[in-house]
Specification:
Elements lengths: L1 E10 L5 H12 L2 E7 L2 E8 L1 H13 L6 E10 L7 E3 L20 H7 L43 H7 L21 E5 L4 E4 H13 L4 E4 L4 E6 L3 H11 L7 E3 L3 H7 E2 L2 H8 L5 E6 L2 H7 L5 E5 L4 H10 L3 E5 L11 H4 L8 E5 L11 E5 L2 E6 L8 E3 L8 E3 L9 E4 L2 E4 L9 H18 L5 E5 L5 H7 L5 E5 L1 H13 L5 E6 L13 E6 L4 E7 L2 E2 L5 H4 L1 H13 L9 H4 L3 H13 L5 E2 L2 H11 L11 H9 L11 E3 L2 E3 L1 H7 L5 H20 L7 E4 L6 H10 L16 H7 L3
Parallel strand pairs: 2-5, 8-15, 10-13, 12-16, 19-22, 22-23, 24-31, 26-30
Antiparallel strand pairs: 1-3, 1-4, 2-3, 6-7, 6-15, 8-9, 9-14, 10-14, 11-12, 12-13, 16-17, 18-21, 19-20, 20-21, 24-25, 25-26, 27-28, 29-30
Helix pairs in contact: 1-2, 5-10, 14-24, 16-19, 19-20, 22-23
C-alpha cells in the first residue's frame, strides 16, 4: 500500500467531479481525500498499484456529463494514514490553471422536477443541479465555490443545505442551488401600470403581456433579451422600429425541437446542435418564407434556439408560441447585464421580467451553423466559453491577446492553454470599450493572471491596440491581422510546419500599410509570406464604402472605364446622382479619402451593387446573405480573371458581370470564380495543408463549394472565422 498524490486538470470544477471521485473511491474501498485547488482537482489516495490503475481507469471512462479531463499527473508521496475517504476544504494557490465550465442549459432531471407538482421546486425559475445551470456568468474568481460567486448573497435553507453537503446527492456542491424559500426571486415590472408582481404570478403576467403584443426585457443568464411573440408581426415591426433595426435578422426561441421543425428544415447535425447542452442559436434554412419576411427580411435563413433556462421553459411551455429573443443592447453596445444599463433601452420595452441574481460576467448567446456536417462557430459565447483550447505546444510566456476591433474577443495563454473570452462585439463606442476592458479584468481576476507579453493587431487606431499599449512594462507583440486568422486555425487543429492559408474578410491592416482582405499566405508559427492577393482597388469615402456597396462597385467601374463609367447603364451608376458621380470620380482620380483595399468582403458588396441586389446595407454581411439567395447549383460557369506575379486581376470579371442580364447566373458564376481563383493559386503550393479563415467564409454557399472542392481543408470550428478568432491566433504567434 502506497500513498499517491493525483492532480487532475481540465473541466473538473463545478461539474460534480469531487462527488464522482468520492463515489469511485467508495466503490473500490479506498481511503484518502479529494479537494478543489486553483490547479484543478487534487486527490491523495492510499492504494496498491493495481488498485490505483483500476481507480484511474474508472475516472477516465465514467465521467460526469459536464466534466472533461485534459491531464492526470500521479506521483508517489510519503505515506499518510487515512481511515476513510473525504471531500475536504478547497485549497488556493497563486497560480490558477483550473478550467472553469461555461453556463450550461437545464438538464432533463431538473426539467422533470420543474413540472412535477409534488416537487418542492415545482415551477421554480432557477432550479439547477451539479449537471446544469449557471457557472461563468456568476463567478468572481477561482476556485469555483459559492463564496466566490454572486450566489453568496443567498443563504441556503436547511433542505438546500442538506442537499449541498451530501456527496451522494445530485446537488452536492451545486453552487447556484436554491429554492422558493432561499434562492433568487423573480419580479415583473410593468411600466404603464407602475406595477410589480412576484413569483409564479410574474411569469404568468409576462405570458399575458406577450400574448397582447408587448415587448419584454427578460433577464437571463448572461444578460437581458428583448422578447416578443414571434407570430405577431405587429409586435416584431414595433421592436424593429424602436430598436432601429430595419432588416437585420432576429433570433427566435422555440419551446422544443418539434416546434423548431415547423419553422425550418433541420438536418441530423443541426438537431444535435439545437438540443445540445450548449443550446446555441443555429442558423437554419427556413421552411416558412412568409413568416421569415418579418423575422429575417430578404433571406431564407432563420436563427433558432431552444430554451436553456427554467425561466425560458416556463414561459414557452405555457405560451406555446415561438418568441423573438434578441440581445438587449444599443447598436455597437454590449449586452445589458443590470437594471442600470437596461435604462438605455427604456423606450424599447414595455415591461421587465427581472431577477435578483447578479450577473457578474456578461455573456451573449452563441451562434453556430452546420455546413456539410462541419460546425462553424459564428459567435462563441454562452455554453462554449470560457472553455480552454489546448495549444500544440507550451507557450514561452504568459500572453494576453487583445484581438481586433470588430467581433472582438480577448484571450489569455499560459502553458499549453488558451482561454478565450466570450464574444464582446465591435469596439465602436465608449460603452463597448469599457465592457471589453472588463472582460480582460475578468480573465485576470478569475485566473490570477499576469501577462508577460501582449499580442495585438498591427492597426494603430484599433481600440484593442490602444488598450495593449496602455499596459506599462509589458512587452508588446504586433501580429498582422490575416496571419492571425490562419494562426488561429493552425492552433485549433494543432498543425505544425508550414501551411497554405487563404484569408478572406472585410478589412485588416497589411504590413505594407494598405487594407488587406483577399490574401493567400504561406504560414508557420514564426511568420508568413504573402504569395498572392486581389489587386488593390480604392474604397471611395473610406469607411462609408463599408455601408455603401455602390461605392466599391463604382470604384471598380472607374478602374475599368475611367470617367466613361459615368455613362454606363448599370444599377450602380443609377444609384447616384450626376453630381455625386462627378465628385466621386475626382475623389477616385486624386485618391481623396480613398484607401487601397484587396478585400474579398468588399468584392461581395461590389457584385451586389453591380447586379442591382443591394446598394446600401443596414448590417454587416447583408450583401453576402442576399447573394446566397440567388445561387443556382446547376450553374457551373465562371468569369475570367488574370493571375500574374502574385496579383489577381478581377477587372475581366467586372467587365463580364455587367453584361449579364440574369442575376442568379451572375451570382452563381461569381461564387464559382472565387473557388477557381483559390484552386488556381493553391495548385502551385498543393504540397502544403490548405487552411481557410476570415469573415467571408461564414458564407454558406462559398463554404459548401470550398468543402466540395477540398474535402480535407482545415477550417475554424471551435473559434469563429470572423475576427472573433483573431485572439487565439495572436496568442500563439512567435512561439
Amino acid at each position: 500500500m502506497q500513498t499517491y498524490k493525483i492532480l487532475i486538470k481540465g473541466t473538473v470544477q463545478g461539474v460534480g467531479f469531487r462527488p464522482f471521485v468520492y463515489q469511485t473511491a467508495q466503490k473500490f474501498g479506498l481511503f484518502g481525500e479529494v479537494l478543489n485547488s486553483s490547479l484543478g482537482v487534487e486527490i491523495v489516495l492510499n492504494a496498491a498499484k493495481e488498485e490505483l490503475g483500476l481507480f484511474l481507469n474508472e475516472l477516465k471512462t465514467n465521467l460526469p456529463p459536464l466534466a472533461k479531463i485534459d491531464l492526470i499527473e500521479v506521483k508517489e508521496i510519503e505515506f499518510r494514514e487515512f481511515n476513510s475517504f473525504k471531500i475536504v476544504q478547497t485549497k488556493e494557490s497563486e497560480l490558477k490553471t483550473a478550467l472553469l465550465p461555461p453556463d450550461i442549459s437545464i438538464c432533463k432531471e431538473c426539467e422533470k422536477e420543474l413540472f412535477d407538482k409534488n416537487n418542492r421546486r415545482y415551477l421554480y425559475p432557477f432550479i439547477t443541479c451539479t449537471n446544469c445551470g449557471v457557472r461563468y456568468s456568476i463567478i468572481e474568481k477561482l476556485p469555483y465555490d459559492r463564496v466566490n460567486t454572486s450566489m453568496r448573497f443567498f443563504k441556503m435553507c436547511k433542505k438546500c443545505e442538506a442537499e449541498y453537503n451530501n456527496p451522494l446527492d445530485r446537488r452536492y456542491h451545486a453552487q447556484p442551488i436554491g429554492c422558493w424559500e432561499c434562492g433568487p426571486t423573480i419580479e415583473l415590472r410593468i411600466k404603464s401600470e407602475e406595477l410589480r408582481v412576484e413569483g409564479v404570478d410574474a411569469v404568468d403576467g409576462a405570458i399575458r403581456l406577450l400574448r397582447e403584443g408587448a415587448i419584454l426585457a427578460l433577464k437571463g443568464v448572461g444578460g437581458y433579451h428583448l422578447v416578443c411573440d414571434a407570430t405577431n408581426f405587429e409586435a416584431i415591426a414595433k421592436l424593429r422600429e424602436r430598436k432601429k433595426r430595419p432588416t437585420k435578422p432576429f433570433a427566435v426561441m422555440v419551446k422544443d425541437i418539434e416546434m423548431a421543425k415547423e419553422f425550418a428544415n433541420i438536418s441530423k447535425k443541426e438537431e444535435e446542435l439545437l438540443t445540445s447542452k450548449e443550446r446555441p442559436i443555429v442558423i437554419l434554412n427556413s421552411s416558412l418564407l412568409t413568416h421569415n419576411s418579418a423575422i429575417a427580411p430578404n433571406i431564407s435563413k432563420i436563427g433558432l434556439f431552444l430554451p436553456y433556462t427554467p425561466l425560458h421553459l416556463l414561459i414557452l411551455k405555457k405560451l406555446n408560441r415561438p418568441i423573438v429573443a434578441t440581445s438587449a443592447n444599443l447598436s455597437d453596445e454590449p449586452i445589458c447585464t443590470d437594471i442600470k444599463s437596461l435604462q438605455k433601452l427604456k423606450n424599447v420595452y414595455d415591461a421587465i421580467l427581472e431577477h435578483n441574481r447578479k450577473i457578474v460576467n456578461g455573456c451573449d448567446d452563441s451562434v453556430v451553423m452546420a455546413v456539410k456536417d462541419r460546425v462553424l462557430m459564428m459567435r462563441r459565447a454562452r455554453g462554449y466559453t470560457p472553455v480552454s483550447i489546448k495549444l500544440p505546444f507550451k507557450l514561452k510566456q504568459n500572453t494576453l491577446a487583445v484581438g481586433a476591433n470588430q467581433k472582438s474577443t480577448v484571450a489569455i495563454g499560459f502553458g499549453n492553454n488558451a482561454i478565450l473570452s466570450p464574444h464582446i462585439g465591435d469596439l465602436d463606442s465608449i460603452g463597448s470599450v469599457e465592457y471589453y476592458k472588463k472582460n480582460i479584468e475578468t480573465l485576470f481576476r478569475i485566473y490570477g493572471f499576469k501577462p508577460e507579453v501582449i499580442a495585438h493587431d498591427l492597426h494603430p487606431n484599433y481600440e484593442s491596440t490602444k488598450v495593449a499599449k496602455s499596459f506599462s512594462s509589458v512587452k508588446l507583440k504586433p501580429v498582422q491581422h490575416h496571419f492571425a486568422h490562419i494562426l488561429g486555425v493552425m492552433a485549433e487543429h494543432k498543425l505544425n510546419g508550414k501551411v497554405f492559408g487563404v484569408a478572406f474578410d472585410g478589412t485588416g491592416l497589411g504590413s505594407d500599410g494598405n487594407l488587406w482582405g483577399g490574401e493567400f499566405l504561406i504560414c508557420d508559427y514564426k511568420g508568413f509570406e504573402r504569395v498572392a492577393h486581389f489587386e488593390y482597388f480604392k474604397l471611395l469615402g473610406g469607411e462609408k464604402a463599408i455601408k455603401e456597396p455602390r461605392r466599391v462597385a463604382l470604384s471598380l467601374l472607374f478602374e475599368c472605364f475611367g470617367k466613361e463609367a459615368i455613362n454606363l447603364n448599370v444599377p450602380t451608376i443609377k444609384a447616384f446622382s450626376q453630381t455625386e458621380l462627378n465628385a466621386l470620380y475626382i475623389a477616385w482620380q486624386k485618391g481623396l479619402n480613398a484607401p487601397f483595399s484587396s478585400s474579398a468582403g468588399r468584392l461581395f458588396d461590389a457584385v451586389a451593387s453591380l447586379i442591382g441586389v443591394n446598394q446600401i446595407v443596414s448590417y454587416e454581411g447583408e450583401s453576402g446573405l442576399m447573394l446566397e439567395e440567388l445561387y443556382d447549383k446547376g450553374e457551373k460557369g465562371t468569369y475570367s480573371f488574370e493571375f500574374k506575379n502574385g496579383i489577381i486581376n478581377i477587372r475581366p470579371l467586372v467587365l463580364e458581370i455587367i453584361k449579364e442580364d440574369n442575376k442568379s447566373k451572375a451570382v452563381s458564376k461569381f461564387f464559382n470564380t472565387l473557388i477557381e481563383i483559390i484552386v488556381t493559386i493553391y495548385k502551385k503550393h498543393s504540397n502544403l495543408p490548405l487552411v481557410a479563415s476570415g469573415g467571408v467564409f461564414q458564407n454558406r454557399v462559398l463554404l459548401e463549394l470550398l468543402i466540395e472542392r477540398f474535402p480535407n481543408i482545415y477550417l475554424p470550428s471551435q473559434i469563429p472565422p470572423n475576427d472573433g478568432g483573431i485572439a487565439l491566433g495572436q496568442t500563439i504567434f512567435g512561439n
